C-alpha cells in the first residue's frame, strides 16, 4: 500500500515548475475567454444580418434603412454601436469619440455645415451630455443649442456603489458583464439613475406605452441580439460617457450668446431631476436671464409621449408663429 501511494520520484523544482506552467496556462486561457481582446470594429446588422435576411424576415423588422416616409434611403448615422452604425470596440465611448464622430458626420455631407451659425443642435438624455462639449468647442457652428433632459450633472452616488464597482473595477469578466447587461437591456427599465443610458435608448419607464414606444422597445431588444457593438457601447458609455460631474462643460454654456441655449426637462422625470438641475445647473449656465429654461409634463420618455409640449416650447424659443 505504501508503494501504491508513494509520490513519484521527481525533484521538487520540477514539480513546482510544472505547477507554475499549468497555472499560468490556465490563467491565460481564462483571460482569453473571459477578457477577450477588444476588436477595433464591431459590425452593425447592416453588414451581418440584413444581407442574409429573407424578405419575410425584413418585413418583420421594426427599423430599416429605408424607414422614412416614401421609403427614401436617407443617410442617418447613429451613435457608434447603435442602429446601423458599426461599433467601436477598442476606444472608450467618451466625449472625444463622440465629438470626433459628429465632425465626421458633418464632413461626410456634400452640404457645408461648418460655417458661421451652420446648424441647430439638439441632444436628448445621453445625447445632451454629448452635444454640450461639442457646442462649447465649436460655438460659431451652433446657432442654437437644445438640451432635452440632458445627462451631465447626475449625482454619481445615485448610480449605486455596487453598479459603479461592477462596471469600473475590472474584476468582473467582460463576457459575463456583457451577458448580464444584455439581459438587463431586454427588460423594462427601472427608475434608477444607473440606467439613464438604457432610457436614452428610449425604453418606456412607466404606464401604458404608445405604439411608437412599443416599436422602440422591440428595437432595443432586437439590437441586443443582433448588433455586436450595442452592448459593448452601452457598457463603455456607462464607464466613460459624460453622464456625471460635467460642471465645467455646463459653465461653458454661460459663454454662449444670450438666449441661444434651450434646456427643457420633464416634470416627473425619474432619471434627470428638474429640481436638482435647477439647483446645481441653472447657476452654471447664467440663470434664466441667459438660457431658455422650461419644465413640461411627462417622464424621461417625454420626447415620445409629450412631443407636442416640447415643440410648443421650441416654437417659443425659436420665435416661430403657428
UniProtKB/TrEMBL annotation:
Keywords: Hydrolase, Membrane, Transmembrane, Transmembrane helix. Signal peptide: none annotated. It comes from the Eukaryota. The chain crosses the membrane at residues 12-34. One of its GO terms (molecular function) is hydrolase activity. This is Alpha/beta hydrolase fold-1. It comes from Metarhizium rileyi (strain RCEF 4871) (Nomuraea rileyi).
